[in-house]
Design a protein that fits this description.
The complex is a heterodimer. Chain A contains 13 helices and 2 strands; from the N terminus they run αααααααββαααααα. Chain A has helices spanning 2-26, 33-38, 44-54, 60-72, 86-121, 126-140, 143-157, 183-216, 219-226, 231-269, 274-283, 287-315, 321-324; strands spanning 170-173, 176-178. A two-stranded antiparallel ribbon of chain A has the order 1-2. Chain B has helices at residues 46-53, 80-86, 98-101, 108-119, 124-137, 143-146, 156-168, 186-203, 214-220, 238-243, 248-255, 295-299, 315-320; strands spanning 2-14, 19-31, 35-39, 61-70, 73-74, 91-94, 174-178, 206-210, 223-228, 231-237, 305-307, 310-312. Chain B is globular. Chain B has 13 helices and 12 strands. The longest helix of chain B is centred in the middle third of the chain and has 18 residues, at 186-203. In chain B, strand 7, helix 8 and strand 8 (206-210) form a beta-alpha-beta unit. By secondary structure, chain B is of the alpha/beta class. In chain B, the strands form 2 sheets. In chain B, strands 6-7-8-3-9-10-12-11 form an 8-stranded mixed beta sheet, with helices on both faces. The chains are: A mainly alpha, B alpha/beta. Chain A: Pfam families: BPD_transp_1, BPD_transp_1_N. Chain A: Keywords: Cell membrane, Membrane, Transmembrane, Transmembrane helix, Transport. Chain A: One of its GO terms (cellular component) is plasma membrane. Chain A: Its main location: membrane.
Chain lengths: 326, 330
């Protein structure tokens, strides 16, 4: 187990190194930060002086090594716009994003399993046809469009939900305010969560359905029937457990992807999270903040994937984590 | 009275463009404690017979007509709930490949206990006690530890013993074993067959042994059915069928055994392949491969007829017994 963990940590470091290199390499192509920083009324001499002070005139390798050295001390640079450490800016915005992802995850986990199992057990029923049809629609419509449509219908026309912002939040600790502790907060988080889940949910329903249908054809399911077990036990004990093994692996990766999708959802709903912040940073050519965001998101990816692999090892008895370190 | 009495059982498969008859009006009996072998080539309908008896045909297969009388009741007419009470309880099944029969994510103990508790009101501890006893009966060493293990931790032979133990858990009246040793090493095959024979004899359990191995049939069973293209073509006491086969197909099967050929000589074989049930030839389905086929064999399907202890569906055999060819089609 420990050997496996150590191996995974080394893999994670290698991935983070690659992400930092890529993230840092693209920053030169994003435009001139000085223009965003000082405007047009400042003379070229002052600009050059500023460039020198910021270290922008140094070679790429020098800049990158300086960045890497600082990063190892937890310093991902200082945001040009906020004049604050980039990491602090991101960490302040992170709880809002994670709550949005949590809301979407709850919707996905809560609905995909029953819907996926139902459509697998009763593939020919009318309800299954409707579910599968809607899932195609869900996958096909881009998140930002779903979000705008939902605002139009549920916020503007029907007036059931607020259209933007986090609403009333309850302070938990540090920079973490939660939406999940008040009615107003819940109402605010619902539409963005549904929008964020709109692509992943159909994907998971289809994935679970396909896996489940395959498992239901297996010999051990036939044997379970031959033993005289009740259908519910066959579906939910024998089949579902085997169905979820591959779903967990795919699902873990998708949680990471969802963090990336928040950029669109947060922008449409003016949700004060990392994704919204990232888009603003791009507009302001706030390169340290952009690079820091890429690194933080990469880190979230790596961490969730590692956790998912560990969970997979715990759920699947044929995977022996203790031996996998070798 | 027979334990199991199958009458005119017909199984069809509803394919996209046609309905294929996979089992055509087969009839046979199994007495209490009797061991019956079903032999034939792949695709003859042996396994389908086994699954049809359990009412476990997978889509698109279904029982079209006929009766399966089990303990005096026609279980073809049973509801799902009624059938569930029979499966695993009074009628159990042993599958072909033990590597895929047991659920990989459940322990042996869970898979045994759930079977017992599906049919009897037992506490978990009681069910575990019975499971341990049954594992001991199939000669599994240290059965208490096995209950905690997962299938992948055990060898193929061990797993098949566990499958047999599960089949025996509720002391069934009939066990259907569908090629129970085909997927196992040759050295283990004999062990498993010996075990199955011993358990059936000591517990007075009826056995339907589905196999393509005539050697196994002669050693294990009292009566044998030979199937070809979804029909029974010869049935009778195993000894008689092995020693004195009447139907040209059965003769071909026996002659194809390696023991029937001198070392260094080519093995004898039946020319051609068994026809697909979707494209059966007219007349006797075996006639394209039969050395004795005459005109009538190409036109009229032979009915199964009883000659002393053996039943045979063959025009030529009927003629040899002094029954003239019947022109009307069966």
């Amino acid at each position: 187990m420990l050997a496996y963990l150590v191996k995974r940590v080394f893999q994670a470091i290698a991935v983070m190194f690659a992400i930092s290199l890529i993230g840092f390499a693209i920053q030169d192509n994003l435009g001139d930060p000085l223009r965003a920083l000082v405007g047009v009324s400042v003379s070229e001499e002052v600009r050059d002086q500023l460039r020198d002070e910021l270290g922008l005139n140094d070679g790429f390798v020098t800049q990158y090594l300086r960045f890497l050295g600082n990063a190892l001390h937890g310093d991902l640079g200082t945001s040009y716009f906020f004049k604050e450490p980039a990491l602090d800016v991101i960490l302040k915005k992170m709880p809002a994003t994670l709550e949005l992802v949590l809301g979407a995850t709850l919707i996905i986990v809560g609905l995909s399993v029953p819907l996926g199992v139902y459509t697998a057990i009763k593939p020919k029923s009318i309800l299954s046809g409707i579910i599968m049809g809607l899932s195609i629609v869900g996958i096909s419509i881009p998140v930002f469009l779903t979000a705008i449509l939902m605002i139009f219908v549920f916020a503007v026309n029907l007036g059931w939900f607020p259209s933007y912002g986090r609403g009333e939040v309850v302070h938990v600790f540090g920079s973490w305010d939660t939406n999940f502790a008040s009615f107003d907060g819940l109402m605010h988080v619902l539409l963005p969560s549904v929008a964020l889940a709109s692509i992943m949910l159909p994907l998971f329903v289809r994935l679970i359905r396909a896996e489940m249908m395959e498992v239901l054809q297996s010999e051990y399911v036939k044997f379970a029937k031959a033993k005289g077990l009740r259908p519910m036990r066959i579906y939910f004990v024998h089949a579902l457990k085997n169905t979820l093994l591959p779903v967990i692996t795919v699902g873990g990766v998708q949680i990471g992807t969802m963090v990336a999708y928040t950029i669109l959802t947060e922008t449409v709903f003016q949700w004060p999270g990392m994704g919204f912040m990232f888009l603003e940073a791009v507009n302001r050519v706030d390169t340290p903040l952009i690079v820091a965001y890429l690194i933080v998101v990469g880190f979230i990816f790596v961490v969730t994937n590692t956790i998912v692999d560990l969970i997979y090892g715990l759920v699947n008895p044929t995977v022996n984590l203790a031996r996998m370190g070798a | 009275m027979s334990l199991l009495s199958v009458r005119d059982l017909t199984v069809k498969f509803a394919m996209r463009d046609q309905t294929v008859t996979a089992l055509n009006q087969i009839s046979f009996d199994v007495r209490r404690g009797e061991r019956l072998g079903i032999v034939g080539e792949s695709g003859a309908g042996k396994s389908i017979t086994g699954f049809a008896l359990m009412n476990l045909l997978s889509q698109p297969g279904y029982i079209d007509s006929g009766h399966v009388m089990f303990g005096g009741e026609d279980i073809v007419r049973f509801s799902d709930a009624q059938m569930r009470r029979i499966r695993g309880n009074r009628m159990a099944m042993i599958f072909q490949d033990p590597m895929v029969t047991l659920n990989p994510v459940l322990t042996i103990g869970q898979q045994m206990v759930e079977t017992l508790r599906a049919h009897r009101k037992l506490s978990r501890a009681e069910a575990e006690q019975i499971s341990i006893l049954k594992l001991r009966e199939v000669y599994i060493p240290s059965p208490e530890e096995r209950l905690e293990q997962y299938p992948h931790e055990l060898s193929g032979g061990m797993r098949q013993r566990i499958v047999i133990a599960i089949a025996l858990l509720l002391d069934p009246e009939l066990i259907i074993a569908d090629e129970p040793t085909t997927a196992l090493d040759v050295t283990i095959q004999a062990d498993i067959m010996d075990l199955l024979l011993e358990l059936c004899q000591s517990n007075k359990v009826g056995l339907i042994l589905i196999t393509h191995d005539l050697g196994v049939v002669s050693q294990m069973t009292e009566r044998t059915l030979v199937m070809y293209a979804g029909r029974i073509i010869e049935a009778g006491p195993t000894r008689q069928i092995i020693n004195d086969p009447q139907h040209p197909y059965t003769q071909g099967l026996i002659n194809a055994l390696p023991q029937q050929t001198l070392p260094g000589h080519r093995l004898k074989q039946i020319p051609g392949n068994m026809p697909s049930p979707a494209a059966l030839p007219a007349g006797c389905p075996f006639h394209p491969r039969c050395d004795f086929a005459v005109d009538i064999c190409r036109r009229v399907r032979p009915e199964i007829m009883r000659f002393a202890e053996v039943e045979i569906a063959c025009h030529e055999v009927s003629r040899l017994h002094g029954i003239p060819y019947k022109e009307e089609s069966a």
